[in-house]
């Protein structure tokens, strides 16, 4: 064991003549394009973009006019469908009230125990229900979807 410790160790020294000098001077980047080349390329891209815009501007304008016309043409039908669904839901609410209160003596649909709620308007006038009354007999998911529609848009 003592013989193993007696082996001469070789020290790590610099190579003969020393190490190479460390390069620390700034090396500027190679210039591939001059300022004129870049400016000419920019002008070329601009001219090309204007050319492509002029090629498609008329088509884009025509498409926008067509879409606007289609929206204006379909708008009355969408309003009519909305109003139709509104009246159907009011009818469903009325039928649900009739079904729910059929066993209550003296209950007449659209009144409060046979007495009109709105006395100063003609009997055949539509009284629009408030939001909660409108969705009273529909599913809670429909009410939630309509109440919080702005959160999803």
UniProtKB/TrEMBL annotation:
Pfam families: GRIM-19 (PF06212)
InterPro entries: GRIM-19
Keyword ATP-binding: no
Keyword Membrane recorded: yes
Main location: mitochondrion
Subcellular location: Mitochondrion inner membrane
Keywords: Electron transport, Membrane, Mitochondrion, Mitochondrion inner membrane, Respiratory chain, Transmembrane, Transmembrane helix, Transport
Annotated transmembrane regions: 33-53
Membrane topology, as annotated: Single-pass membrane protein
Function as written in the Swiss-Prot or TrEMBL entry: Accessory subunit of the mitochondrial membrane respiratory chain NADH dehydrogenase (Complex I), that is believed not to be involved in catalysis. Complex I functions in the transfer of electrons from NADH to the respiratory chain. The immediate electron acceptor for the enzyme is believed to be ubiquinone. Involved in the interferon/all-trans-retinoic acid (IFN/RA) induced cell death. This apoptotic activity is inhibited by interaction with viral IRF1. Prevents the transactivation of STAT3 target genes.
Family: Belongs to the complex I NDUFA13 subunit family.
Subunit comment: Complex I is composed of 45 different subunits. Interacts with CARD15, but not with CARD4. Interacts with STAT3, but not with STAT1, STAT2 and STAT5A. Interacts with OLFM4.
Protein name: NADH dehydrogenase [ubiquinone] 1 alpha subcomplex subunit 13
Originating species: Iphiclides podalirius
